[in-house]
Amino acid sequence: MVPPPFVADTGWVTGVQIQSPPFGSLMKSWRRRRRLSQLDLALEADVSARHVSFIETGRSTPSRAMVLRLAAALQVPAREQNQLLLAAGLAPAYSERTLDDPGMSAVRTGVERVLNAYNPFPCLAVDRDWNVLQINAGANLLIEGVAAHLLAEPNALRISLHPDGLAPRIRNLAQWRHFVIGRLRRETALSGSEEAAALLAEIESYPGGQNETADLGGVVVPLELLGDDGQVLTFLSTVTTFGTALDLTAAELSIEAFLPADDATARALHAGN
Question: Are 222 and 214 within 8 A, CB to CB?
Fold first, then answer.
C-alpha cells in the first residue's frame, strides 16, 4: 500500500512570519497568559521586579540574554521567542527553512526513516497546528472511509474527530475526544496560537461528548478503532519530537505513532501488511 495523494516526498508545510507588537507589551501579555505577577516573573528569571517593570513599560531595553532568560521563565515556544527578539530589535534565535531545503536533509531523512520503521503500525508527521505533513503506509488504516473534504487539506485532529472522519469508527469516542481536546487545550494555552485556538473551538463543536473515565488501569487512554471486519483494534499513541532543534520547522514537527495495545491488534496489522 502507498500513502494517499496528499502525501508526497516534498509534501511539507512552511510557517509564516508574524509582525510583533512592542517588546514590553508582548512580554506583558505572555506574563498575564501564564498568570504571573511581575514579582513572580522576576523570581523565575532571577532578576529584580523593578527591572521587569522597566522592561514592560519601555523604560529599559533588554539585552538578547535577558530576552531569552525571560522567554525561558515564561515557557515561550520557539516561534514566539523569535517574535520577542524581533520586537526587542534583535535577530531571531531560530531559523526557518522548508524541509525541502538542502540544509534540512538530515531532518527530512530522519522523519522518513522513523515513519517507515513503524510500518505496519500507523505513523504520521504533523506540524504544531496538527496539519498532516507525511504519513507511512500503515496510516492508510486511519483514513479509510474519511471524506474527501477532510483529506484535501488534512489535519490530524479534524480527521480523528469530525463526523465525516474517523469518529464513527472510534468505539470509545467520548473518551478519546476528552483526551484529544484536553491535549489541544493545553497546547493552545502554552503557545498562544490563534490558529490553535480556532482549531480548538472547531473541534469542541463536533458531536460525540466527553468521558473522563480512564482505561488500562488509568495509565493511558487507548484509541479503540473498529476495523472493516468488525474487529476492535486498540492503539496507544506515542509522540516523537526533535528535542534540540534550532530551526522552527524541525522544532514544531511531531511524529505520532499508534502502537498496538494488545496481541490481537498487532496480529491484525501484520496480517494486513
Answer: no
